[in-house]
Automatic annotation (TrEMBL):
Name assigned to this protein: Nuclear transport factor 2 family protein
Protein species of origin: Roseicella aerolata
Alphabetical list of InterPro entries matching this protein: NTF2-like_dom_sf, SnoaL-like
Residues in SnoaL-like domain copies: 11-109
Domain of life the protein comes from: Bacteria
Length: 126
C-alpha cells in the first residue's frame, strides 16, 4: 500500500479481473485520465474528467475479453507507475504504460500511453 492509504493490491486485482466498478472507486471525484495512442496522439489525447466519465471508459475497456497482467510496478508515496500487458483472444497484444498521481488515497491524475499489434487486432478499435 502506498502512503496516504492507496491500495495498490486493489488496483492490481481490478485491472487483472477487469472490474470496472472497483477501478472507478479508486479515483478521486475530480480525477483526470489522459490517454495517448496511435488514434489519440499527444497533440489531441483523450481526456476524461471526473469519476463518472472515467468509470464509463473502464466499463467499455473491461467489457472486452482480454487476459490482463500488471507488471513492472513502482509504488511511491504519491505516484505509481505500472505496465499493463493484455492479450486478446485473437492473439493481439496490447501494452499500456500508466503513471498515476495520488491524492488522499485516490487516483487524482493518470496518464496512459498504449500500443497494440497493428495487424488483425480488434483492440485497436477502442
Amino acid at each position: 500500500m502506498a502512503s496516504g492509504g492507496f491500495d495498490f493490491a486493489a488496483l492490481r486485482r481490478a485491472l487483472e479481473r477487469s472490474d470496472a466498478a472497483m477501478l472507478a472507486a479508486l479515483y478521486a471525484e475530480d480525477a483526470e485520465l489522459t490517454i495517448v495512442d496511435r488514434n489519440r496522439p499527444p497533440s489531441a489525447p483523450m481526456r476524461l474528467l471526473g469519476r463518472a466519465a472515467i468509470e464509463g471508459f473502464w466499463q467499455d475497456v473491461c467489457s472486452r475479453p482480454m487476459a490482463r497482467a500488471v507488471v513492472e510496478e513502482v509504488v511511491g508515496p504519491d505516484r505509481i507507475a505500472l505496465v499493463e500487458r493484455c492479450t486478446c483472444p485473437d492473439g493481439c497484444h496490447v501494452v499500456s504504460a500508466m503513471t498515476l498521481e495520488l491524492r488522499d488515497g485516490r487516483i487524482a491524475r493518470q496518464l496512459t500511453v498504449q500500443a497494440w499489434d497493428e495487424l488483425g487486432c480488434a483492440a485497436e478499435q477502442g
